[in-house]
Amino acid sequence: MVYATYEFYKEVFGGDAIPQDSFSRLAKRASEYINMATFGRAETFSDDEDLLKKACCAVAEATKINEEGGGVVAESVGRITKNYAAGVTNTPNEEERLSIAVSRYLSSTGLLYLGV
User: Fold this and answer.
1) Terminal C-alpha separation, the chain
2) Which of 42, 29, 33, 28 has the alpha carbon at shortest distance from 100?
3) What pLDDT score was predicted for residue 69?
4) 116 is a domain residue
5) Which residues contact 80 (CB under 8 A, 6 or more apart)?
6) Given this model, what pLDDT does residue 80 score?
7) Residue 87 has what pLDDT?
8) Model confidence pLDDT, tens digit, residues 88-112
9) What's the CA gap between 33 and 81, in Å, rounded?
10) Which helix (H) or strand (E) covers residue 75, if one does?
11) How many domains does the chain have?
12) Contact 61/100 with Cβ under 8 angstroms?
């Protein structure tokens, strides 16, 4: 089950980082990640607030960033340049990026709870 459509991504979530031709693939991967993170409970979750759809969009964007090699580590604007030494950054790794994205929307639902 894919939790979000491109229309939802553009109109409700307000996303603009993923082109339409890539969204279906990324949303599918994001939904698979959500199912793994929620131990399959997301599929039967009653979602009146569109939290699963929003989580799907956020995880899809994080997946896109991961596929592109991660976040920006050097940036130049005009004559100003920022560089970060290897290993000295607060940029999240791939798994942290996905976890942050899913947690942003599902942490209050109980779906991510590991206990009994």
Assistant:
1) 25
2) 33
3) 77
4) no
5) none
6) 77
7) 53
8) 556 788 889 999 999 999 999 999 9
9) 36
10) strand 74-77
11) 1
12) no
In a domain, 12, yes or no: yes
And the tokens for 86?
A: 């290897």
Q: How many other CB atoms are there within 10 angstroms of residue 21's CB atom? A: 8
Q: How far apart are CA 9 and CA 88, in angstroms?
A: 33
Range of the domain at 27: 6-106
Q: Determine, yes or no, domain membership for 62.
A: yes
Phi, psi of 98 (to 5 degrees): -65, -45
pLDDT at residue 94 in the model = 87
Alpha helices in 9-106 (DSSP H): 20-37, 51-67, 94-106
Residue type, 47: D
Per residue in 20-68, pLDDT (tens digit) is: 999 999 999 999 999 999 999 999 998 888 999 999 999 999 999 988 8
Locus of tokens 């991660």: 70
Cα 40 to chain centroid distance, Å, stands at 18
From residue 14, how far is each of 9, 11, 50, 87 by CA, in Å? 6, 6, 13, 33
The H or E element containing residue 81 is strand 80-83
